[in-house]
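Discrete fold record:
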Amino acid sequence: MIDVKKYTKRITILQSQDVIDDIGNVDCIWTVLHRCWASVNCTGGKKFYEAAQTNVQDYVTFKMRYCQKISGMSATKIRISYDNKIYNVKYIDDYFEQHKELKILAEEVL
């Protein structure tokens, strides 16, 4: 049994959609796929140096109740909006395929 009291943060899951404009250009837009409650845990990060500039990547783990439309999605097709920040999804884990909880590893978009 899952303790739903631990899901105290509101997140929005965004889905990538390709849209063709009037002259045939393809644009990627992000639309709302699902809003839910989740637990959020900063799992660390790493520093890297590029063009004499220090960048920091922050990884965050989101845990939420199982949702079939999200578990079947490709990680590259969704993002998470939380606390006025956007996170690219790296991995979606349905622990032992129990269909109770999803664990999503994401990286903040800089």
Summary: The chain has a mean pLDDT of 87. Strands lie at 9-20, 26-50, 53-65, 78-82, 85-94, 101-108.
